[in-house]
Amino acid sequence: MINTKDAEKNIKEFMNKHGVKGFLILYFAKYLLKVLKFQLKSKLGEVDAEKDPGFIFFTKNGKITNTSDIDKYETELYEICKQKAKIIVEELENDKKFEELLKGDFSKIKDTSLEPKFEKALHDILKDLGTKNGNKI
Fold first, then answer.
1. Distance between CA atoms of 47 and 62, rounded to whole angstroms?
2. pLDDT 10s digits, 28-42
3. What is the pLDDT of residues 76-99, one digit of tens each?
4. Model-level pTM?
5. Which one of 11, 18, 45, 52 is most buried, counting C-beta atoms within 10 A?
6. Widest pairwise Cα distance in the chain
7. What ranges in the chain are assigned the alpha helix state H?
8. Do residues 30 and 18 touch, judged by C-beta distance below 8 A?
9. What distance in Å separates the CA atoms of residue 66 and residue 128, rounded to the nearest whole number?
10. What angle do CA 76, 79, 85 make, to 5 degrees?
11. What is the pLDDT of residues 105-128, one digit of tens each?
């Protein structure tokens, strides 16, 4: 388990290397991946290794046949989510309301009027992203 000091060091190194934009891409990619996996699993109710659409091609008689295929599948899903996350962040960058935040100026972070604006912007971006060219997220 990582201690607080090491965690802070890791976060600072990450932010220095990737900045706010990199953090948001990572955050949204992980978020989209989690939502996608939840959607795949919720289609069936209880998760069943024989019927779970996330793993159905990697099981035989309820047993995983090839873990490297699952790892590859997870990586491919994450890469798709990461590409979508980049689009989300680019769209947010184009919105002047969030310009300072995306450049790392957090002086307005306590401005409570930004939260509903951010939620609406994110909702609109996800809606547009989910319907562009007939694609689903």
1. 12
2. 999 888 887 777 666
3. 889 988 998 999 888 888 888 777
4. 0.68
5. 52
6. 57
7. 4-42, 67-93, 99-102, 114-131
8. no
9. 36
10. 145
11. 777 667 787 788 888 888 888 777
